[in-house]
Design brief:
The complex is a heterodimer. By secondary structure, chain A is α+β, with helices and mostly antiparallel strands. Chain A has 7 helices and 8 strands, in the order βααβαααβαβββαββ. By secondary structure, chain B is of the alpha/beta class. Classes of the chains: A alpha+beta, B alpha/beta.
Chain lengths: ~250, ~400
């Protein structure tokens, strides 16, 4: 894969975006902020809402926004770079301070907590998976697109990350961000394409901006190319949306 | 999935041993490899653990964590097979798909919870040590492969979801082969967490026994190389991935559906995708964690799918529950079962829970087998089943 290689044609049937510090994807791109605003995550009710982390709440928020556009709750791919990192920090602190951990918190500490709660909330037995790691945005797009093409069915892709607690000495990004996309398998010549292109090893992307650009690429009736992240050494995954896709 | 994919290499390491040959010898001899919590894991409650024995491993790059040690115990066994795959396809056509449930959580524990019982200081801690993919880039580099690299984490079904992802990469032309690996190391958060849920057995786990009372946690790694179906890969195949199925319980985040609904769905799907019927399955390798609810739900699912009492074994009685690595661990033992034509015993089964209505194998049992169905179920109601078959003639 030393030159651009098409992965496959897909349809983007819908997109949703949430940021704790921006009212919309457009505001991200315009540099307009807002005070911290939590998600409402209405798809979860009653006890299911208890102990949920911000990353889970944001996943549920954007999934809930797209579900009305899907005939049935679809197969779902969740993607997250850090997963339940705030819950992990609390568990370790509990263990250090009291030699005990909360069973409820532990149960919700796995990376696939959002997908589990999603399937329970929707009553969907469709399979879900969770892609993680530094390249989770790109790998999530790849996994969801290949799943849609493989199954010939609609796939819900949900991507979210919460701020990393300071004690981890990780990235100092204070914004929680999520985006979801409803993807359909497209016949040859479809309007959105994933392509693999060469990139430099030091290419760095801002997750909030990447997700905002992808969500906006679907909204506007203009051709757009969004770099999603590295998928193999020296190689970037790109989303290329043609103009017609905006009206699909 | 349109056909089977050859498994051209497999390796595992866990409490039974740090190389596959030792693991197989001890597993098929019915060795009991569990031990009381070590000094490092000193716990205020009784439980047994499946701890991987010490082994000398050359750490790669700067990855010197317990997760890396556990993973590399398997990876080092794969190097000749990966070199052969590189010769066949080229380094950039070989993907690396890694799965784990806890990833580098232990490293973060050591850094964030200063405790005189913990042997390492936090001085060398890097944020990236925490991630599920903490070891991925270094291990892929050390294997000399440069294809698509991704990580999957769906609790105890992680490694089977990774296997499904790798097969999609091959089927859609993004790779010709994939190194699919999984590893989980023991850490205090996991041990205390399962204890807090009442799921950690105080004694060695007894899957499907009448008085079973929970999980024995283990650490381990399991890796396979799968390749595009071709004459060259058929010749060296150990076995074949014939079908994979996945489904959700949609019932509860940590408790299984009482009838094992997701398990039923994924077993049927795996069997359908293999192009066979339940009657063609010679043995089921159960998820079999040893908890009351999990085993009952899985038994219900098996009863629904199979009209006969298919022989069933629970290898977590041998390896412990290796979490994100559980699926591939059981699958590699199933590959060895097909080679030996023997089903390993489910340890500590007696007295068996006859009310479950499944045919558990309680001693090493010779049997002619073409196909084994392997289950991996996890938190979030995440269920995956894989049909593994004799290498045989592949699909055209």
């Amino acid at each position: 894969m030393t030159s651009a290689t098409a992965v496959g044609s897909i349809q983007i049937l819908g997109a949703a975006f949430f940021s704790t510090h921006h009212a919309s994807a457009l505001d991200v791109l315009a540099g307009r902020g807002r005070p911290f605003t939590p998600p409402s995550y209405r798809l979860l009710v009653g006890r299911a809402r208890r102990f949920t982390s911000l990353v889970t709440q944001m996943h549920i928020e954007v999934c809930g926004a797209l579900l009305p556009g899907a005939a049935d709750p679809p197969m779902a791919v969740f993607a997250t770079c850090q997963g339940e990192i705030q819950t992990a920090e609390k568990l370790i602190a509990d263990l250090r301070d009291s030699s005990m951990v909360s069973s409820a918190r532990f149960a919700l500490s796995v990376h696939n907590t959002p997908s589990g709660l999603y399937s329970v909330a929707t009553g969907s037995t469709a399979p879900t998976t969770t892609v993680t790691g530094a390249n989770a945005i790109a790998a999530g797009w790849l996994e969801a697109s290949l799943t849609a093409l493989d199954a010939g069915r609609t796939v819900l892709l949900s991507i979210a990350d919460e701020p990393v607690p300071a004690v981890f000495r990780g990235p100092e990004e204070p914004v929680g961000v999520a985006a979801a996309f409803l993807l359909g398998a497209s016949p040859a010549g479809g309007r959105a394409q994933l392509a693999v292109t060469p990139c430099s090893e030091d290419a760095e992307l801002d997750a909030v901006e990447v997700l905002a650009r992808a969500a906006e690429a679907w909204r506007h009736n203009e051709p757009a190319t969004v770099a999603l992240g590295r998928i193999q050494p020296g190689t970037m995954l790109e989303l290329r949306v043609a103009a017609q896709e905006a009206r699909a | 999935m349109t056909g089977g994919h050859p498994i051209t290499a497999a390796a595992l390491a866990n409490c039974l041993g740090t190389d596959s040959r030792t693991v197989f010898a001890r597993a098929f001899a019915g060795a009991d490899a569990f031990s009381a919590a070590s000094a490092y894991h000193e716990l205020p409650f009784a439980t047994m653990l499946g701890i991987m024995p010490r082994c000398e491993i050359d750490v790669v790059d700067c990855v010197a964590t317990r997760l890396a040690t556990v993973a590399l115990a398997s990876v080092r066994q794969l190097r000749p097979a990966v070199r052969a795959a590189v010769d066949r396809w080229g380094a950039r056509r070989i993907a690396y798909v890694f799965a784990s449930s806890t990833g580098g959580l232990e490293e973060t524990e050591r850094a964030l919870a200063p405790d005189p019982r913990l042997p390492l200081s936090s001085a060398g801690y890097r944020y990236t040590d925490h991630g599920i993919d903490a070891t991925s880039a270094a291990i892929a580099r050390s294997l000399g492969i440069g294809g698509v690299c991704m990580a999957i984490s769906t609790a105890c079904s992680s490694s089977f979801h990774a296997l499904a992802s790798a097969i999609r990469l091959i089927d859609r032309g993004l790779a010709d082969a994939a190194v699919v690996g999984s590893a989980d190391s023991l850490c205090r958060t996991t041990i205390f967490g399962f204890h807090s849920l009442g799921l950690a057995s105080p004694t060695a786990t007894r899957p499907f026994a009448r008085d079973r009372c929970g999980i024995t946690l283990g650490e381990g790694s399991a890796y396979v190389v799968i390749e595009r179906d071709a004459e060259a890969t058929r010749r060296v195949a150990l076995a074949r991935i014939a079908g994979i199925g996945a489904a959700s319980d949609a019932f509860h985040h940590t408790s299984p559906h009482p009838d094992g609904l997701g398990g039923q769905l994924c077993m049927r799907q795996a069997i359908d995708r293999a192009g066979i019927t339940p009657n063609d399955i010679d043995c089921v390798s159960a998820h079999g964690t040893g908890t009351r609810l999990n085993d009952a739900a899985e038994a219900a699912a098996v009863r629904h799918v199979f009209e006969r009492r298919v022989p069933m074994t629970a290898t977590k009685s041998l390896t412990g529950h290796t979490l994100g690595s559980a699926g591939l661990t059981a699958l590699i033992l199933a590959v060895e079962s097909l080679r030996r034509q023997e089903i390993p015993a489910t340890l500590r089964l007696e007295p068996a829970d006859d009310s479950l209505g499944v045919a558990m194998v309680d001693k090493l049992t010779p049997r002619r087998m073409q196909r084994i169905l392997v289950n991996a179920f996890g938190f979030g109601g995440s269920n995956v089943s894989v049909v593994v078959s004799q290498p045989g003639p592949g699909p055209s």
